[in-house]
Amino acid sequence: MLERHASRATRRAREFEAFVAGAAGRLLHAATLLTAEAPDDNPRARRLLTLSLAHTYARWDRLRGEDPYDRTRCHLATRFARGAWHHGGLGRPRAHPASPLATLTPQERLILVLRLYEGVAEEQTAALLGLSPERVRAICHRATSALLHRPQGPSPTVTTAKPVPS
Question: Hey, CA dihedral for 127, 52, 11, 3, is it positive or negative?
Answer without folding.
Answer: negative
